[in-house]
Input
Amino acid sequence: MSEEDGHTDGGIEARLDEQDVFEPPASFVEQANVTDEGIYEEFEENWPDAWERAAELIEWEEPWDRILDDSNEPFYEWFVDGKLNASYNCVDRHLDERAEEVAIEWVGEPGESRTYTYEELHREVTEFAAALYELGVGEDDVVAMYMPMIPELPIAMLACARIGAPHAVVFAGFSPDALADRMNAGDSSYLVTCDGYYRRGDPLNHIEKARSGVEKVDQDVTSVVVDRLGDERAVDLGPDEHDYDTLVQEQAGATVEPVTRDAEDMLFLMYTSGTTGEPKGVKHTTGGYLAYAAWTSHAVLDLKPEDTYWCSADIGWITGHSYIVYGPLALGTTTLMYEGTPDYPDNDRFWEICDEYDVDVFYTAPTAIRAFMKWGPEYPAAHDLSSLRLLGSVGEPINPRAWLWYYEHIGGEECPIVDTWWQTETGGMMITTLPGINDMKPGSAGPPLPGIGADVVDPSGDPVGADRAGHLVVNRPWPGMLRTLYRNDERFLEEYWREYSKSERDQWVYFPEDGAKIDADGYITVLGRVDDVINVSGHRLGTMEIESAIVGVPGVAEAAVVGGDHELKGEAVYVYLITEDGQEETDAFRDEIVAAVDEGIGPIARPEEVIFTPELPKTRSGKIMRRLLEDIASGKELGDTSTLRNPEIVGEIAEQIGGADE
Ligand code: PRX
Output
């Protein structure tokens, strides 16, 4: 926290100095879904059977025989032999009581809106499921989706779930190359996409990106194209492209019974970044994932069927899957989707939406909160936010100043904040306070949820003790956990699991690759990634993926990508670059590098700075000292450089970037 920040809003500093624990407001506790402190003990004493609580929130065609099968660790199975359908649970089962209630409230960026009641959602999901059958999609075929925040995205996901075809949603901001990589990895022969969408008033051409991605897919692809932009962009469809509306109209009134899926059958694949350049296809299943998404939506987000709930994430990431689509719809809630950005047409867009739709629960990311802080409290103050009951944060550590600002200016000091730590791989929230029970400590996510075992350990697996930094581990399975990496059990074992034979329970331990510390009350503060993954505005990006996009540019000899601190984004991408002999170090060349990253991954990974250097700091054994490069990028004081083969290079780089003395 810089001094300068302190001057702009000194009140926050003073308050944080005198108060570091906040009690949940009584008005919230009175009505909370979960208020019995005994729940932690109940899960401990009755583990794993206590997880029935989660499974009972959804409907099963056939009940499970066993809660947990741990005979083949760490390939755990949950709710063994249970049968269900996720689309039935998110749609059909609400028809008796909630047919006329709103399932999806959609707000387009230019200002229009669309509402789907549960009955309307049922109709369109069924019709699109019939259309998918007609196109030849069969059970277990992976259907890729490359769509922005439009209602047809959750509809297509639920239609896939209805017929047992796993979906693989690729964030619309990713590049065509990234789409092609993921479709090849998942062997997807089907794609649902759209013509375009609005971003800050401009209609973006999305179909062109989708088409150039499809060109690089190895197998033949059949595409469905949603017409989002109408007359704004007329698209001539090719022979393998089908218009979404026409397909749905052709199936008007069709009925498609939800197929019976085994609890362990794949519901979806979600690609995420890891240490190597190749994205990982995280596999989530029907029973455990859905039960876990529903349970955490109930216990942590406190969702009730009559709520209007808004998660401002994009469905292209796991947060949108679990907490825009599956969790809230499984509970019969109204889930709100917004197409655009928070600053269009003005910086109060989010608060205007909260006001207009009487949003009860709001879930966003620290990067957005930091932007709101910068814009100033007058934007939320101009709107009535009194409908809000609970606030959530996800995706990266939230600094205490941002926490307090959120608490005061958005929650009016009457809403608890849940700072929820979890990952693509965990399927749902793992570490956070229960808002009707626990006190909140700004900056610390809180204790592990009931039934979740988490600790902070040293490199040999021993707990580090209070307030010491170490590696976060999860030492018990949970229903929402990833089951494997798609077609790559070996990488799944290698990347996430270690067996500590000396540990008490002789158990397998899951490594999320995050650093953390734990305080005397058992509250966990997550410090950030310990692998080569960076977190830009809550988006997880692999440095190796970015590097491989860059080293393909003619004239580049070597590149190292690291994350450096960034006031708004949390972290930003910094590129250190050695050029080949004869390649001039010009701004035009920098632009080429930026364009290569746009093309390889997408504008979310766009470098903050490209720094030319004659050498990279390397250890005597030739390893790039990334930590040092990160410190230079963040302008931190540099630690020990004596183990370097070329210590003099550090000063040279720091001078170029100017970061070290800012
Ligand atoms: O480093 C942690 C950070 O985001 C990573 C997971 O990223 P992803 O799989 O894209 O999922 C993001 C949404 C769940 C984690 O390994 N992270 C997520 N939530 C928090 C967090 N870091 C600190 N505090 C959090 N609440």
In short: Residues 1-8 have pLDDT under 50 and may be disordered.
